[in-house]
Amino acid sequence: MEQLNKFVERIETTLLKGVRLESENPYDPVVVKHTPTGWSCIGAGNYAAVFAYQGNEEWVVKIYAREQEGLKKEAKVYRKLGGHPAYSELIYQGEQYLVLKRLRGITLYEAVHKGIQIHESIIHDVNEALQYARERGLTPCDIHGKNVMMNEGKGYVVDISDFYKPGEDEKWNDLVKAYYKFYKPFFYKYSIPIPDFVLDAIRHSYRFYRKWRKKRKQVQLYKG
């Protein structure tokens, strides 16, 4: 408890007072303009950014840049999940941040970018973790290549902030289909690095495809 109290004090006195975050577009990751000495940003999503302190290897701090109500909902999701090897754990809840157990590894996005093999066990681990969340009354949403991490053949879900929303999206299912249809037969064996600009083009194309698919379904329902 003393270690946690000291860590929380350090967050309040150094990180929160010195960090500068901007959310320029709700569909793009939060932009970190300044990080205080001793801290490093290890990830950013559409709502928040995650920071680690050089003297602490156990925990990370997730600071919300917008939609503060989402912080409270995310904390509730973690409490519902309880302990599961494929998820982080809630250590402490502050006014605008969460202290979480640190997960090690690289994201699937990074693995594809660097040409590192993504073993099929990663897919199985995440599928099992998402089913576990459903059994706890949650709805897994926004699961994509930047929200899934792998380490030593194990898969981890690193962002559960949208698990409270009603209805699941198709992002993970689409990623799994792409894994078996394109990645496994063409990229897995040779581990070819994919440039960032290609991955960004794929991401934007997929976003356009989702909008087109949604409109198509609405038209089909209207025609009935």
From TrEMBL:
One of its GO terms (molecular function) is protein serine/threonine kinase activity. The keyword Transferase applies. Residues 36-224 form the Protein kinase domain. It comes from the Bacteria. The keyword Transferase applies. Keywords: ATP-binding, Kinase, Nucleotide-binding, Serine/threonine-protein kinase, Transferase. ATP binds at residue 62. This is Serine/threonine protein kinase. It comes from Ectobacillus funiculus.
